[in-house]
Amino acid sequence: AFADSLMWNSPLLRSRQLLYDDLGDINPRLREPRDLFALFSSSGPLLAPRWPIECEVIKENVRHIEWVPPQPEYFYQSTGNEKVPEIVGEEKGTVVYQLDSVPTEGSYFTCSRVGGKRGIIKDLAVTLQGPDDNTLLFESRFESGNLQKAVRIDTYEYELTLRTDLYTNKHTQWFYFRVQNTRKDVTYRFTIVNLLKPKSLYTTGMKPLMYSQLDADTHNIGWRRVGNEIKYYKNNTDDKQQPFYCLTWTIQFPHDQDTCFFAHFYPYTYTDLQCYLLSVANNPVQSQFCKLRALCRSLAGNTVYLLTITNPSQSPQEAAAKKAVVFSARVHPGESNGSWIMKGFLDFILSNSPDAQLLRDIFVFKVVPMLNPDGVIVGNYRCSLAGRDLNRHYKTILKESFPCIWYTKNMIKRLLEEREVLLYCDFHGHSRKNNIFVYGCNNNHRKYWLHERVFPLMLSKNAPDKFSFHSCNFKVQKCREGTGRVVMWRMGILNSYTMESTFGGSTLGSKRDTHFTIEDLKCLGYHVCDTLLDFCDPDQTKFTQCLAELKELLQQEIHKKFNELGQDVDLEGSWSDISLSDIESRNSTSGSDSSLSDGLPIHLLNIADELKQKKKMYKKKKKKQLQTRKQRNEQYQRNNLMRELKLTEDASERAGFASTPQKQPTFFKNSENPSYTTMKNDKPRLNE
């Protein structure tokens, strides 16, 4: 009894971090971590977003309803007669909204706080002169908003300037802002004047999105595609360093005195994510098989969430046999389409559907729903607060500068050590191509030749009106070595993909020439789950059929390639001897300019520049101070000579004689050999 008492009072067994299933058999296991949300409430999560201290943030809580339009929203059909407004700017217009200070290139992130900048939040919109003043009131100081300036050119015409990604002078594509004091039955024109990409889906029929608060409140109508006279064109301003492009459109607002929002795509904010995760944590059923944890904190201190989704196993052996699947989204904050696909996936995998339960029995899902919360909060398009594209830094060792990426990669590395990772997929958005497709990595291993293409082909069959296999590309380019898909592929995940979802819509099947809705993207999340079941079906009939089809498609591609070169081709040899990278001749369609945002984080670059300047100044100063050996000897001998002359003059004055001019020593006449002087009483001095 005494021994038992002593054993149970040991420090190990008194730990609150360990649990014991059976007192007779000491088999400790770790206690479940505490919940991230200390208090659960229907009002939303308690973890308020943290902003850089330079950012002003309004107190209003901006939220939108989800809505699916009852009819397809078709692409805009260009007439060829669209107006191309010339940019006139502040000289001929009136500034009606402008952010006071914007952290751009040359500055860098230092610290953050909830609510951003301290002090009173000023009203940046103009003051209306009376009820008949029809000036629009602009605002964008809310989550994911990014309007920097609005200039009124005419009664109903405005030029808009977007804010670049914080701490950079690049990446203007995403937009999201609010207007108030609208008038119905009149035509307004908006022109965004500082877009950076020369090509855009707006040239092929994509329309902007608008949200009417009155329609949402009274008719439960949400975001919808709007606009006429849509034109994407090169800016007429003369900027030799950086050409800009314009997007212009016209619109008639549905109501007087309405509050409306415009956006590049359906917004999905950090607060939206937290509210969704809070509902999962509050659900007594879902919380049993979905564990919500903090992967890390971002630069600004916002939580990067990690979800582990799997059904409890009956035995340790069954748990160890499960393969893993990893999904992530929003490494590029302006690509909100990734969040909607992720939401569709989570809605399905957390449901009580038999297929969802089967997937949870087979797999362990690791999900990072928002890799770049800081960028999402401040309204960036591509970068984090380090001023860099995180999807070029998966090889980084700078944990403090890129914590979200470092911890994600480290999590997957540890996962690979304990189980096989069947598939990795990072959800993105695409600004130049329609449909949904993937970028993968060619595999030249004989045993698994073409296997990396099976999952995308299956997905194209399950979602034929959304997913285009012919738009997929599997070439690994050198400039993409730092991306998630390539790094994970090199770590040993054969099926490693970047899934690109268009900002526009579909050119396929029944959805041809229509915009994607929120529901379309959420459905794609379901189709990913459905395709996983096909991919892992013990009956490999579908897999084998897809593999045979891929070989046929490749044979056609080879014939096409050799015909273009005017050569004959013999395909009787070994298929696996053919280099797929050589065959794929498609140009890169990533549309990204992230090479401009690669490299060290901005704050380290600034420190490096400061040190470089200090070093340069120090060298310059040191160069002025340093003399050659010859100069030092001459100076030494000059000093000795002046000392001798002064002593002679002093002696003459004391003796009452006037000093007489003395002959210049030979030292000054012959400086070619300064090794010694010929003055009397001066001893020879060797070179120093």
Automatic annotation (TrEMBL):
Q: Name one GO molecular function term.
A: metallocarboxypeptidase activity
- The segment annotated Disordered runs over 618-688
User: What is the first-listed, main subcellular location in coarse terms?
Assistant: cytoplasm
| Composition bias type Basic residues, residue spans | 618-630
UniProt keyword annotations, A-Z: Carboxypeptidase, Cell projection, Cytoplasm, Cytoskeleton, Hydrolase, Metal-binding, Metalloprotease, Protease, Zinc
Biased composition, class Basic and acidic residues, residue ranges: 631-653
* Gene Ontology terms describing biological process: proteolysis
Per the record's keyword annotation, is Metal-binding included, yes or no?
yes
UniProt lists compositionally biased (Polar residues) regions at 659-679
Catalytic site: E500
Q: Which reaction does it catalyse?
A: (L-glutamyl)(n+1)-gamma-L-glutamyl-L-glutamyl-[protein] + H2O = (L-glutamyl)(n)-gamma-L-glutamyl-L-glutamyl-[protein] + L-glutamate
Looking at the record, the residues that make up the Peptidase M14 domain are 266-536
Query: Where does the record place it?
Result: Cytoplasm, Cytoskeleton, Cilium basal body; Cytoplasm, Cytoskeleton, Microtubule organizing center, Centrosome, Centriole; Cytoplasm, Cytosol
Q: Which InterPro entries match?
A: Cytosolic_carboxypeptidase (IPR050821), Pepdidase_M14_N (IPR040626), Peptidase_M14 (IPR000834)
What's one GO-annotated cellular component?
Answer: centriole
Q: Which family does it belong to?
A: Belongs to the peptidase M14 family.
- Which named protein is this? Cytosolic carboxypeptidase 2
